[in-house]
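Please decode residue identities from the backbone states below.
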């Protein structure tokens, strides 16, 4: 009868584990329910997977509105708008906290070092267009207001919808990026929000050697019932077989296999034509200046290239359009002038072109 104490000990251990597991119930941050594999930074480490850490910040203290933040390595922080745990596939909807998600796309979002991947990856082309021209460009192209100015606009369009005959052909292509869009339908395309999914990680606990995550949802309650009921039934069968046949049974073994995620992001250099631009000799007639360590610009307040939107740095070369004294990265303005004879900022033609 030595088997009875053994069975009682196992059932008591299972009960203790299920009671301890209640210390990691899911919590709310604003409108977001934080559940496994996600965890808030002030929760015990065993309540979630370390690759799914979130933080809860007060966005509007006067009304008690909290904001959920996720931080990606090498990329930075994003607002979390929605986490769908029971959808197929699971999904995470994020956006830039400053309201300019396209800028983060141009800077580069390194998903390869995160457990997340796109659900609907779509390749987008980004263009720098004059403001006058951009007013004539409509759907399916998107005008990115947070990146433009009075003199130029940044436009984006899905590569599969771009044709060489469109007005965008007169603009300068500045990037080609794979974007995790939030909808598979063209009419709902937007670059303001990004939709990602993840492969469910196995529960690797650091608290009392058990998986201490149990939420309040029906799915987790069913999981608890099966987790206790199946082992108890299994032990009862073993007990009957032990006394009926006196034969031993093998151990129950469950194999866990860790998923792997691979994200690829391709970006090819833009292909530009040479229509309606200046010839090489005319472009090279504009003077080039090498920026030294002192980083002295002709106009100290104008420290950003209006074509690529990057700040000037030491040891870079800038080319100045002498007709209007506007300057840009030499490689940027060279490509621009091959297809457009006008200055990207003031849109004026060179003096010799106007005379012609």
């Amino acid at each position: 009868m030595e088997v009875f104490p053994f069975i009682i000990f196992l059932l008591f251990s299972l009960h203790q584990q299920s009671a301890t597991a209640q210390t990691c119930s899911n919590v709310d941050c604003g409108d977001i329910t934080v559940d496994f594999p996600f965890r808030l930074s002030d929760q015990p480490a065993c309540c979630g997977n370390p690759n799914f850490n979130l933080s809860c910040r007060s966005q509007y203290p006067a009304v008690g509105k909290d904001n959920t933040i996720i931080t990606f390595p090498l990329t930075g922080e994003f607002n979390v708008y929605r986490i769908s745990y029971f959808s197929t596939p699971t999904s995470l909807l994020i956006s830039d906290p400053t309201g300019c998600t396209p800028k983060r796309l141009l800077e580069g979002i390194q998903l390869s070092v995160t457990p997340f991947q796109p659900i609907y990856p779509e390749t987008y082309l980004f263009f720098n267009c004059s403001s006058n021209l951009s007013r004539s460009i409509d759907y399916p192209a998107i005008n990115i207001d947070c990146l433009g100015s009075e003199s130029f606009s940044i436009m984006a369009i899905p590569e599969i919808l771009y044709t060489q005959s469109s007005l965008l052909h007169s603009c300068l292509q500045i990037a080609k990026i794979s974007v995790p869009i939030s909808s598979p339908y063209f009419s709902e395309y937007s670059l303001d929000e990004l939709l990602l999914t993840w492969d469910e990680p196995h529960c690797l606990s650091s608290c009392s050697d058990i998986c201490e995550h149990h939420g309040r949802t029906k799915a987790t309650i069913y999981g608890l019932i099966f987790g206790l009921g199946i082992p108890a039934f299994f032990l009862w069968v073993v007990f009957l077989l032990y006394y009926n046949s006196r034969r031993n049974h093998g151990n129950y073994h469950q194999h866990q296999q860790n998923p792997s995620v691979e994200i690829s992001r391709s970006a090819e250099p833009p292909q530009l034509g040479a229509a309606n631009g200046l010839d090489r000799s005319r472009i090279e007639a504009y003077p080039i200046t090498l920026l030294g360590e002192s980083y002295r610009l002709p106009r100290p307040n104008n420290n950003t290239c209006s074509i690529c939107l990057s700040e000037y740095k030491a040891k870079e070369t800038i080319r100045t359009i002498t007709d209007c004294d506007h300057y840009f990265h030499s490689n940027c303005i060279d490509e621009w002038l091959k297809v457009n004879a006008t200055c990207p900022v003031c849109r004026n033609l060179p003096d010799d072109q106007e005379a012609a």
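Observation: The radius of gyration is 30 Å.
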